[in-house]
Specification:
GIY-YIG domain-containing protein, mainly beta, 7-stranded mixed beta sheet, globular, 7 strands
């Protein structure tokens, strides 16, 4: 089994995402599509270069989310060295788990192996985000794929004294 711990930073908008210089990361785009009346998670992507540059410089799906566009940038913290394969595997999990409503067009085949993802949420300042009030944070804190079924859990967050 493979386990990943992801630290999500955000929320960012078009103006302040430039300040993040993470390389080898994952990102999600949330907001409203044309003719839709609610915010939703719409896209997961990865970048082996600076993630914010990928988002800012001509992202091909960004214009489709035309209202209330928000970004979350995730860093895999469980591995000393993050590979492209790690990023693709994590992206694949999110696309498979949240496939309804996503505008991703790839990675629609089933997942080949057992894995677990732990999601932790942080403000742009680096402080732990205690309140989950953004649509991107509706992703479960724990996502487990046993090869056949999904299992999830919320309320992973805790405070250290």
């Amino acid at each position: 089994m493979i386990a990943y711990v992801i630290e999500w930073m955000g929320p960012y908008n078009d103006g302040d995402v430039i300040s993040d210089d993470l390389e080898m990361g994952i990102y999600m785009i949330t907001g409203k599509l044309k003719n839709r009346h609610y915010n939703q998670i719409h896209y997961f992507g990865i970048s082996k270069n600076i993630v914010s540059s990928r988002i800012i410089n001509g992202h091909h799906k960004k214009p489709l989310v035309n209202r209330n566009r928000i970004y979350w940038i995730g860093e895999i913290k469980s591995h000393k060295t993050v590979t492209r394969e790690d990023l693709e595997r994590v992206e694949h999990v999110f696309i498979q788990y949240l496939k309804h409503g996503l505008i991703n067009e790839k990675k629609t085949k089933s997942l080949p192996q057992n894995l677990i993802i732990l999601n932790n949420w942080f403000k742009k300042s680096g402080d732990v985000r205690k309140n989950k009030k953004y649509i991107g944070q509706t992703i479960p804190d724990v996502i487990f794929w046993d090869g056949e079924f999904w299992q999830t859990s919320y309320k992973l967050g805790f405070e250290l004294d």
